[in-house]
Design brief:
Helices cover 38% and strands 20% of the residues. The chain is of the alpha/beta class. Strands 1-4-3-2-5-6-7 form a seven-stranded mixed beta sheet, sandwiched between helices. Helix 4 links the parallel strand 5 and strand 6. Helix 1 packs parallel to helix 6 and helix 3 runs parallel beside helix 4.
Length: 229
């Protein structure tokens, strides 16, 4: 059983006076911070250093782009430790987001992390509906460098169902030269997992995600995943 460290999940300041009627883009990042992320594999930096660096660049882009900062609701979930799932932020606007770099240690409770991501996505969609806020199809990025250390099959089945019914768009990413894609395929019935094994790959991924954050109709991220991984 994973420990959910989300007693103070920040869903932003959503008083009736502050609701922005712009069509929203919900983006969820489910990020591995297990102990093996402290290793190097294809870059001069460790995998967690590459992830932290490019995640910061992505958040800086959203913060500095007039359209992206207005329409993006960002959720960040990390998993590692002793079966810990940490909700860094829960679909908050960038102005409310306070990000601390991830620290790697422990195991890889990816199943529990995806379950938490689905739970928060459903809460966010219910909020949109209750407040008559339109939104684009949610984007979910799952990044891991290893095999889950928890029971992930129930999460994979439900997640696959949500993908097939067009409730969410998933981009699965394996980190490292020798990553095994078989587990990520179970979460991703429509998009082949992408392997990133260099600093250039990390940068490309987050640049394309940045493009999607300011223009949800931009399909460059989709096309990149369709290329040979």
């Amino acid at each position: 059983m994973a420990d959910y460290m989300d007693d103070e999940v920040n869903f932003g300041d959503w008083s009736s006076l502050d609701i922005n009627v712009s069509r929203r883009v919900p983006i969820c990042l489910v990020l591995d911070r297990s102990g093996s992320m402290d290793e190097k594999d294809g870059s001069n930096l460790t995998k967690i250093e590459e992830l932290n660096k490019n995640l910061k660049d992505f958040l800086d882009y959203v913060r500095g782009n007039a359209k992206a900062s207005r329409i993006c609701d960002i959720c960040i979930i990390s998993f590692g430790g002793v079966d810990e799932v940490n909700v860094v932020c829960g679909y908050t606007n960038i102005k409310d987001l306070k990000y601390t770099p991830l620290t790697p240690y422990g195991r890889t409770p990816m199943g529990a992390a995806v379950n938490k991501a689905m739970e928060l996505l459903k809460l966010r969609r219910n909020y949109y509906r209750a407040n008559d806020i339109e939104h684009y199809k949610p984007i979910m990025l799952i990044m891991t460098d290893g095999l889950p250390t928890d029971n992930y099959m129930a999460a994979a089945v439900e997640f696959s169902r949500m993908v097939q019914t067009k409730e969410v768009k998933v981009f699965p990413v394996g980190i490292g030269k020798n990553f095994n894609k078989e587990v990520l395929r179970k979460f991703s019935p429509l998009v082949e997992p992408k392997t990133i094994s260099s600093a250039e790959n990390f940068s490309k991924l987050f640049k394309l995600l940045s493009a999607s954050s300011s223009n949800p109709n931009d399909d460059s991220l989709d096309k990149w995943f369709q290329d040979e991984a």
